[in-house]
Design brief:
Blueprint: H1 3-21, H2 31-38, H3 43-57, H4 62-72, H5 84-87
């Protein structure tokens, strides 16, 4: 996923969370406050976590491999225990 797409996904997620609470941008609530109330996780982080979990089960496509390489470096030779920070 391109960084532009990740940013658009984050913006869309925050917009949906505000809509769920009936809050507008004019109410000037911080994103952290909205996130605490909705108890949702960041979709970009969740996507990376799921990609890492899937990569442990099978060989991922090249574009997934690129995301994982940027996140945790050379992961093909990484033991399962080192994935713990991302899988949490």
């Amino acid at each position: 996923m391109l960084s532009r797409d990740k940013e658009r996904l984050s913006i869309t997620q925050r917009k949906m969370e505000r809509k769920m609470l009936g809050v507008t941008l004019r109410d000037r609530w911080r994103n952290e406050r909205v996130r605490e109330i909705t108890k949702l996780c960041d979709w970009n982080r969740e996507a990376l976590r799921r990609k890492a979990r899937w990569a442990l089960k099978g060989k991922p496509r090249a574009r997934w491999r690129d995301d994982l390489d940027r996140a945790i470096g050379n992961w093909w030779n990484t033991p399962h225990e080192d994935f713990a920070p991302i899988l949490i």
